[in-house]
Amino acid sequence: MILFKPCICFCALAMTIFACKQNKPKPLSNDISKTIVTVAGKKNSVINNPRKKYGEATVGDPCVKCLLTVIQDSKSYKENTNGVSPQNINYTINWVKASAPALTPDTSNKTNGIRVDVKKDEDGEDARLCTYIYNNTSGTMYLLNSQNKYQHEVSSITPAILKKIRHNCYWGVASE
């Protein structure tokens, strides 16, 4: 009986160690901030939270896919990306404070919006084509001008689409 207890403890310890040492999937890229997201059958290159101000709290895949779908269907996106090959378009997505007139990526922990920069890859350099802000407080999506000021509300977005964005990006909080 005395030998039985150490044997059981040893077996339990061995099972715990082997259970925790599972093979982890290897990343496809060494650049953990850049991901490929497929929206409507097209691959989109997304740089997610490049400044890493929030540790691991990046924008989730359902939110990224929802935002890109909505943005790519808008009239302003089609006008700003006219003549640009889809392979040369990159997106940078970051949490921001959407109430300030100049909307830059935020350094505090309080955010109420998501900024999507649509960029054109020109010889390794990103040139900004247009920028969108989703303001969760007001439940609206805006197009920004070159001075980072609200240009106008994106007109093609219905209340149902805004509810879908809120649900996908804010995990259903206050969206029902």
UniProtKB/TrEMBL annotation:
Keywords, in A-Z order: Signal
Cleavable signal peptide: 1-21
PROSITE patterns named in the record: PROKAR_LIPOPROTEIN
Highest taxon, organism lineage: Bacteria
Name of the featured protein: Lipoprotein
